[in-house]
Amino acid sequence: MQSLFFFIVALALLIVIHEYGHFWVARKCGVKVLRFSVGFGKPIWRKTGKDGTEYVLAPIPLGGYVKMLDEREADIAESERAQAFNRQSLSKRVAIVAAGPAANLLFAVLAYWFLFVTGIPGIKPIIGEVTPASYAATSGLVVGDEITQVDGRQTPTWNSAFKALLPKAEKGESAEVVVKSGGTELLYILNVPQISIEQSGQLLQLLGITPLRPQLAPVIGKTVAAGPADQAGLKSGDRLITADGVEIADWAGWVEKIKKSAGQHIAITFERSGKLESLTLTPEVAEDGTGRIGAGVDADYSSIPADMVSEIRYGPLAASKEAVVQTWVFASTTLKSLIGMLTGQVSTKNLGGPISIAQIAGSSAEQGLVTFVSFLAMISITLGVLNLLPIPMLDGGHLALFLIEAVRGKPISEQAQINGQRIGLFLLLLLMFTAFFNDLTRLFG
């Protein structure tokens, strides 16, 4: 229920932002807006404002729309024709349509700016292990080195170091890495292998770097609904004791056990409310072939050493630049992932629908404001990028038609537009079906 609540909150907020972009620019361009709707379906609430616009709240929270005066949809009085969308210049129509995705991207910039100004906590990027003969070992990196810069960018946390290295992996380029070692700063050239988008999460592992992590107690935090841990009966607060008769010393050891046991039965003993209990757990096989159970750690049962804690924080002006960069990087990565799915380089199993978004929304809200705002920024960027795709019925489809109009000197025929909308509807339904199918597959196996 909590996941559903935060899903509705997140989606409603982002829909309002997107549609308000269209609404605001349309009004500035002199176009009359007939209806501003959040959600689809029969209205459950409506009110007509002093501006003559009908504001509507509908029950299906999967989108919204701004209905403008348009001669192609109804007869319009002579006195109102100048306010019709179809009567506007090409530049104004482009601005109105592009304003929705632009509003989503602008919101993401503001969200990231807020996070960078207030500070994003994390763990210092100190190397815990270096795999022999790996890229990291060859470059000279050793255990205990703290990565402070990558190509001149400050990297106070592992998250910032990872994001700085990831662009290098797109083309397999080298990076200048500054580390703090024994109180001395040293510069190394780290060769970064070229990897696919699907391998991005394994970048540090492929480099041969294992981060130094604080020792966390093996206590179960939030579990994914219908995931292996949930189905086996594990609950938040359960303290893991043994796996197949071997003591579980910390969370890192537990994670390694799970990764190596994909599809295998594990006999677990754990403590719940002061009593020892047992069960059998079977990790599912993840995309990379390792095991996973859909459960996180409850860090409240552990204390993180103060000398391992850091944060990413900038002044207001520097935060503005970083926010734009972060938005651009995530938007370009999203677009590359979509292109990869079309070309077959990225599996469509990575697509997530409303169920996945709801689960992530609930989980991120539980982890605090920073995580939830970051989630909102990423979903807003995704929404903006998706709407810019040149698919009829999406904003990008309309912009593509405007481009054709600019080249031809006149719009394409109404019948061609109708045919395009049919194709667009089919593609959108196919996309939604794939996302829902992936959600149900993850939920029910």
Q: Give the tally of β-strands.
A: 20
Q: Helix content range of the residues, please?
A: 40-55%
Mean pLDDT: 85
Number of domains: 3
How far apart the termini lie comes to 21 Å
| Largest sheet composition | 4 strands, mixed
The unreliable regions are none
> Radius of gyration, Cα only, in angstroms?
25 Å
Strand order of the largest sheet: 2-3-1-4
Q: How many separate helices?
A: 12
Shape: globular
What structural class do the secondary elements suggest? alpha+beta
Proportion of strand residues: 15-25%
Per-chain topology:
Layout: H1 2-28, E1 33-40, E2 45-48, E3 54-57, E4 60-68, H2 90-118, E5 120-123, E6 127-130, H3 135-139, E7 146-150, E8 153-154, H4 158-171, E9 174-181, E10 184-191, H5 203-207, E11 209-211, E12 220-223, H6 228-232, E13 239-243, E14 246-247, H7 251-259, E15 266-272, E16 275-281, E17 284-285, E18 291-292, E19 295-297, E20 309-312, H8 316-343, H9 354-366, H10 369-387, H11 395-408, H12 414-444
Parallel strand pairs: 1-3
Antiparallel strand pairs: 1-4, 2-3, 5-20, 6-11, 7-8, 7-9, 9-10, 12-19, 13-14, 13-15, 15-16, 17-18
Helix pairs in contact: 1-2, 1-9, 2-8, 2-10, 2-11, 8-10, 9-10
Cofactor: Zn(2+)
Subcellular location: Membrane
Enzyme class: hydrolase
Textual characterization of the structure:
Its cofactor is Zn(2+). The protein has helices at 2-28, 90-118, 135-139, 158-171, 203-207, 228-232, 251-259, 316-343, 354-366, 369-387, 395-408, 414-444, and strands spanning 33-40, 45-48, 54-57, 60-68, 120-123, 127-130, 146-150, 153-154, 174-181, 184-191, 209-211, 220-223, 239-243, 246-247, 266-272, 275-281, 284-285, 291-292, 295-297, 309-312. It folds into three domains: 90-119 and 316-445, no CATH class; 122-214 and 308-312, Pdz3 Domain (Roll), CATH 2.30.42.10; 220-303, Pdz3 Domain, CATH 2.30.42. The protein contains twelve helices and 20 strands. It is of the alpha+beta class and 445 residues long. The strands form seven sheets. The protein has a four-stranded mixed beta sheet, covered by helices on one side. Strands 8-7-9-10 form a four-stranded antiparallel beta sheet. 29% of the residues are buried. The protein is globular and about 80 Å long. The protein starts with a helix and ends with a helix.
